[in-house]
Write a structure and sequence with these properties.
Its main location: membrane. The protein folds into 2 domains: 36-116 and 228-272, 3-Layer(aba) Sandwich (D-Maltodextrin-Binding Protein, domain 2), CATH 3.40.190.10; 119-222, 3-Layer(aba) Sandwich (D-Maltodextrin-Binding Protein, domain 2). It contains 9 helices and 13 strands. The protein has helices spanning 2-35, 47-51, 55-59, 75-82, 93-103, 143-155, 204-209, 244-253, 256-266, and strands spanning 37-44, 63-70, 87-92, 108-115, 119-121, 136-140, 160-161, 173-175, 181-185, 199-202, 219-220, 231-236, 271-272.
């Protein structure tokens, strides 16, 4: 009987030891996972390749970036407001300001990323100066990009807009010497319209998705002091504006390594915006 009692005691002692080792291992694992901070970043399109150059640098600092892909422009801001993501990176300041007004939100920019100029493409002419009377031009129809497209046409001396209008529409064209016909379309359709129009003004993301070479554009939006509203930004909830972890994400983005990656991914159609002094 004593023999069995001793055997039972040994088994119980061994099991207790295993339990303590297991608990210690578990606590160590939890501590390790707690040491890494995860930041969910909402993006759209080919930005994923740019973030591939950022994630390893942040990982060295104990920050793991998880990218969340979205398909429409409204989704990343909705997800940020609801707390499903921590940051997003896809929109310019003008779009953000208008979105905040429309949705009674207070999302804030915490760092500049890129400027993505609009460009003019054509299968029919080699220069925007070759536009003739009655030629057709397709432009994006959303308020912000439509305004940009019209301002681009003004800078190219194709039209003149009413002065003092912040978000011009085709109704604000006061001079149209070549009598060009301006056709607003959904931004995603502008590249597809190239067979039907003389020229199309196309967002860089849409152009890249359509396999258009930015070097074949016949005119590109100029970067000037007026370009400030079109700077793309990293965006957070207002309460997180000074969050130290998120500021580390900004620092990791605004580097020469990322500038080179942007050049590679966007073929020069997007340029770093953190060094511009407006």
């Amino acid at each position: 009987m004593k023999k069995y009692q001793k055997l039972l005691l040994l088994v119980l002692t061994f099991c207790a030891a295993l339990f303590l080792v297991s608990c210690g291992s578990s606590k160590k694992s939890e501590s390790s996972s707690e040491g890494t901070k995860t930041v969910k970043v909402g993006i759209i399109g080919s930005d994923e390749r740019v973030w591939d150059a950022i994630k390893p640098e942040l990982k060295k600092k104990g920050i793991e970036v998880k990218l969340v892909q979205f398909t429409t422009y409204d989704q990343p801001n909705q997800a940020l407001v609801s707390g499903d993501i921590d940051l997003n990176s896809y929109q310019h300041i003008f779009y953000l300001n208008n979105w905040n007004k429309a949705h009674h939100a207070d999302l804030v920019p915490i760092g500049n990323t890129i400027i993505a100029p609009l460009a003019v493409y054509s299968k029919k002419i080699k220069s925007i100066d070759n536009l003739k009377s009655g030629d057709t031009i397709s432009i994006p129809n959303d308020a912000t990009n439509q305004a940009r497209a019209l301002q681009l046409l003004e800078s190219a001396k194709v039209i003149t807009l009413k002065s003092g209008v912040e978000i011009p529409t085709p109704n604000d064209v006061v001079k149209n010497p070549k009598k060009v016909k301006i056709t607003p379309l959904d931004a995603s359709q502008t590249a597809r319209s190239l067979d039907d129009v003389t020229v199309a003004i196309i967002n860089n993301g849409v152009a890249l998705d359509a396999k258009l070479n930015p070097h074949t554009a016949i005119y590109t939006e100029k970067i000037t002091k007026k370009s400030k509203p079109w700077i793309n930004v990293l965006v957070a909830q207002k309460k997180d504006k000074n969050n130290k972890t998120y500021q580390e994400v900004v620092k990791a983005y605004q580097t020469e390594k990322v500038a080179q990656k942007l050049k590679e991914v966007y073929q020069g159609s997007s340029v770093p915006a953190w060094n511009y002094k407006f």
